[in-house]
Amino acid sequence: MSAGQDVLRAEGLGKRFGGLQAVQDVSFTQRRGEVLAIIGPNGAGKTTLLNLLSGVYRPSAGRLHLLEQDVTDSPIEHRCHLGLGRAFQIVRPFPDMTVHENVTVGALFGTPGTRLREAREQAWALLELTGLAPHAEKAAHDLTLLQDKRLEVARALATRPQVLLLDEVMAGLRPAESQEAVGLIRSVRDSGVSVLFIEHIMPVVRDLADRVVVMDQGRVIAQGTYREVTADPQVVSAYLGTEAELHA
Ligand SMILES: Nc1ncnc2c1ncn2[C@@H]1O[C@H](COP(=O)(O)OP(=O)(O)O)[C@@H](O)[C@H]1O
Ligand SMILES: [Mg+2]
């Protein structure tokens, strides 16, 4: 079996909220080193799926494997220790701490037993990687939106993930800024992390994703390269009449 290369494997994942089936029968795999995008119209179930992957929710159906371990019933912390990291759509740093301190905290808590000196050094390296080194001594509340997103990615990376989950990190960025954010995600990938991201800005998906999973009404309606899925009639019709531009 060549399954050793899968970092994530979802098999028939489902999540029901009362009468609403938010995610239904979702199956996909992410190979090591692959950048995987999850797209779909508003309300398709993308964020719920991410919450199932990270352990915020337990699925009402299906199994999830992370790095070949069954984590279907594992809490967030266990997944984090196995190698799953997550940056949130809503950025939540410690506002009065400096940028460097924020990332140091991530390094300290992300890997139990990490010494302060080690954590501080690791934080510096991540500030270099994410382009935040010049702002290291600023208070987190003084950052711009783009810098905040960089910080959120740096904090997620501080837990030394092998897989990083990103939920609409480009939201609110101007086009030039989202190009910078694309560069940031490429650096993360080049550092050896497999990235799974939700994004509604199609040029970003086109530029970054090795493979795309398309959701609509809780289900996966297509998977493949950007080119393949955007040519799929089912995908085109799912996007018809929505705000998102499929062929941007
Ligand atoms: N905690 C929740 N409780 C009840 N319904 C929810 C909850 N979270 C999401 N939903 C519903 O599940 C569906 C999918 O939502 P979501 O996963 O946020 O979609 P997306 O991220 O693709 O926009 C929506 O109909 C949403 O209203
Ligand atoms: Mg969402």
Automatic annotation (TrEMBL):
Pfam families: ABC_tran, BCA_ABC_TP_C. GO terms for cellular component: plasma membrane. InterPro entries: AAA+_ATPase (IPR003593), ABC_AA/LPS_Transport (IPR051120), ABC_transporter-like_ATP-bd (IPR003439), BCA_ABC_TP_C (IPR032823), P-loop_NTPase (IPR027417). SMART domains: AAA. The keyword Phosphoprotein does not apply. GO terms for molecular function: ATP binding; ATP hydrolysis activity; L-isoleucine transmembrane transporter activity; L-phenylalanine transmembrane transporter activity; L-valine transmembrane transporter activity. The keyword Nucleus does not apply. Keywords: ATP-binding, Nucleotide-binding, Transport. SUPFAM superfamilies: P-loop containing nucleoside triphosphate hydrolases. One of its GO terms (biological process) is D-alanine transmembrane transport. Residues 8-242 form the ABC transporter domain. Gene3D superfamilies: P-loop containing nucleotide triphosphate hydrolases (3.40.50.300). Transmembrane segments: none annotated. PANTHER family: AMINO ACID ABC TRANSPORTER ATP-BINDING PROTEIN, CONSERVED COMPONENT OF ABC TRANSPORTER FOR NATURAL AMINO ACIDS-RELATED. This is ABC transporter ATP-binding protein.
